[in-house]
Amino acid sequence: MGSSKKEPAGFCTIRKSMREESIDTLQATAIDSVNQKSIDSNTTPSIDITCEKAEKVEILIAERDDFDLKPIYIQLMRQRPFHGFPHEQPMDHINMFEELVWFIFSEVPEDNHFCKLFPYTLAGDATHWFKKLPPISHYLE
Fold first, then answer.
1. pLDDT per residue as tens, the chain (141 positions)
2. Does any domain span residue 93?
3. Measured in whole angstroms, how far is the alpha carbon of residue 37 from the centre of its chain?
4. pTM of the entire predicted model
5. Helix %, strand %, coil % for the chain, to 5?
6. Is 133 helix (H, G, I), strand (E, B) or coil?
7. Residue 121's domain spans which residues?
8. Count of CB atoms situated within 10 Å of the CB of 97
9. Residue 75 pairs with which residues in a beta bridge?
10. CA 82 to mean position of chain CA atoms
11. Where would I find the H helices in the chain?
12. How many domains does the chain have?
């Protein structure tokens, strides 16, 4: 059974805002309060960071059952669950999850460790979203 650490895929793109500056034509002396030019030469223009397109999410379901899913592992996973709230960062959650799994399994963790433990890191709307995804099975060799 081979294992490898994979680089996480990027889910967000960073792009400069393409909004036009607004001009208020109803008032002769109107000042654009939304898109004012900075008089400070040290400030950079604001950058709009958005997720234009999330890449396809692929769910792996482990076909192997050759390790014990100990209650302490589940408790560790549930310490800081991801709910899907607007202020939560999905990539931060995944990075924290990977670090926990790497810590638990001091040897190189197999994909099935990640697959078995990941659902325990979710809560609320994130759990409902995850359960609605169609399962995709991959045989681990």
1. 444 444 444 444 344 444 444 444 444 444 444 444 545 455 454 444 444 444 444 444 444 455 567 888 888 888 888 999 999 999 999 888 888 888 777 766 677 778 888 888 899 999 988 888 887 654 333
2. yes
3. 34
4. 0.41
5. 30, 10, 60
6. coil
7. 60-137
8. 19
9. none
10. 10
11. 71-77, 90-104, 111-117, 125-132
12. 1
